[in-house]
Design brief:
heterodimer, A: about 110 residues, 5-stranded antiparallel sheet, 11 strands, globular, B: about 110 residues, mainly beta, 7-stranded mixed sheet
């Protein structure tokens, strides 16, 4: 069993819709939770990170962490075609030197 | 400010050969990490260096090695290349090794034939 599970999709939604992306994990030591966006043949771009449980909002993006359920989410409001990319969740323990990634969800926003 | 830069952009090698990949971190960042991303998968951690010292190593064979230079740039070396080493190799930098603010470069795409 992988430490981080992420539905690979693909996920297609119409422009303007709210997108929900999710990851589950098994390692209770994870404390930091990140979301990256990766365009085809490019490096991952950090969108936001959250420490421990709770919500964090940045523009059209909202990250949620539920440590009791070992479940994290990223919501994208008013989705745009430029949001079409692969979204990777990543996690790390406190004082840990590495990120553990999910497989990524491929998202397409249809104009 | 310039982001993380990596060279070369892509290269093709033959099984058994050796390869060196290079990374320059964001100015002011003292930590560099290397990841391998196979097509369709998330990145896998290989190494982290901070202030020229190895701070962490992932589950990769000894054919993989790295180092960090006084200017904080880094090299990843892979010996005796295998077909399975074909992947996108990503370098990430952070100010002090904190994983929650790691910024990735564009990667080097390695194809082993």
């Amino acid at each position: 069993q992988k430490e981080v599970e992420q539905d690979p999709g693909p996920l297609s939604v119409p422009e303007g819709a709210i997108v929900s992306l999710n990851c589950t994990y098994s390692n209770s030591a994870f404390q930091y939770f990140m979301w990256y966006r990766q365009y085809s043949r490019k490096g991952p771009e950090l969108l936001m990170y959250t420490y421990s449980s709770g919500n964090k909002e940045d523009g059209r993006f909202t990250a949620q962490v539920d440590k009791s359920s070992k479940y994290i989410s990223l919501f994208i409001r008013d989705s745009q075609p430029s949001d079409s990319a692969t979204y990777l969740c990543a996690m790390s323990g406190f004082g840990n030197e590495k990120l553990t990634f999910g497989t990524g969800t491929r998202l397409t926003i249809i104009p | 400010d310039a982001g993380v830069t990596q060279s070369p952009t892509h290269l093709i090698k033959t099984r058994g050969q050796h390869v060196t990949l290079r990374c320059s971190p964001i100015s002011g960042h003292k930590s560099v990490s290397w990841y391998q991303q196979v097509l369709g998968q998330g990145p896998q951690f290989i190494f982290q260096y901070y202030e020229k010292e190895e701070r962490g190593r992932g589950n990769f064979p000894d054919r993989f090695s790295a180092r960090q230079f006084p200017n904080y740039s880094s090299e990843l070396n892979v010996n005796a290349l295998l077909l399975g080493d074909s992947a996108l190799y990503l370098c990430a930098s952070s100010k002090s090794g904190t994983v929650y603010e790691q910024y990735f470069g564009p990667g080097t795409r390695l194809t082993v034939t």
